[in-house]
Amino acid sequence: MSDPTAAAAAESPSVLAALVAALRGGTIQVVDLTAPLTSTTPVLQLPPEFGQTAVFELEEISRYDDRGPAWYWNNFRSGEHTGTHFDAPNHWVTGRDLADIASVPAGRLVAPAAVLDVTEEAAKDADFLVERAHIDAWQDRHGALPDGGWLFVRTGWSSRSGAQDTFLNADESGPHTPGLSAECARWVAEQTPVIGLGVETVGTDAGRAHGFDPAFPCHSYLMGSGKYGLTQLQNLAQLPPTGAVVIAGPLPIVSGSGAPARVLALVERTGQPS
Ligand code: MN
Questions:
Q1: pTM of the model
Q2: What percentage of the chain has pLDDT greater than the value 70?
Q3: What are phi and psi of 10, to 5 degrees?
């Protein structure tokens, strides 16, 4: 005799029951887009006249010893913008009166992603900038950017994330990492329906963006438009151009400007399940 619950589900399958079945069966896979958090996770470095963000640090409280014989635990210290993290609108002066990280609606934390691949361009030119024409070409091929979703820019930069110097890629003229032009940043922020921009680099702006007009245009325009940033993403090569669903979980730090986040993507595998 068949399981009546299973029979009922088969008759009238709920979307969530179908999701659970697809996850268990491997037709939907979970891709972890998050960089591991350690004391060597790269962090942004500003010119010395500015305040600096902290690297991630663990402080052991006890480890099955006289400080706590049966338990292991740590305190940690971290910047809000250390490692894979979520930028809230109030991170930038243009969004100073807008949402803090704890006020980002939970419904925004689960959203589709469009993935623009500029890996080849970024490999040839560390200062490569995405222009509106690149996104227009993507839309011609894949359809409109997702309303209420993310624009992810895949650059391959996460392959450098094991070391601060290669990740920041700075010389005497400053950091050299790919990003968006000021014009493109403004267009994404003000004219497209996405909720934010996700990148593989240390911040949403290009390495040279301190010299753009305005300086740091992705931060300036996105935060000023109430939009978000996701940085230091990994494994974007495992995402299709469209169709992935991203779950971004920043810590709800009340009044905070951002937070380290576990970022996952649900990806449908149309070929052989693995
Ligand atoms: Mn940030």
A1: 0.93
A2: 94
A3: -70, -35
Does the structure show a pLDDT above 70 at 11? no
| pLDDT-derived band at 274, boundaries 50, 70, 90 | very low
Q: How far is the CA of 17 from the centre of ligand 1 (A)?
A: 36
The domain that contains 40 carries what CATH number? 3.50.30.50
Residues 6 or more apart whose Cβ sits within 8 Å of residue 229: 86, 87, 91, 196, 197, 198, 199, 203, 204, 218, 219, 222, 223, 258
Spatial neighbors of 105 by CB under 8 A, at least 6 apart, are none
52 pLDDT tier (thresholds 50, 70, 90): very high
Domain enclosing residue 224, as ranges: 30-53+80-268
Cα–ligand 1 centroid distance for 226 (angstroms): 14
- Give catalytic residue positions: 91
Distance 103 CA to ligand 1 centre (A): 16
Residue 238 falls within a domain, yes or no?
yes
Alpha-carbon gap, residue 31 to 87, rounded angstroms: 21
Q: Is residue 223 part of a domain?
A: yes
Q: Is the dihedral of CA 94, 182, 170, 172 positive or negative?
A: negative
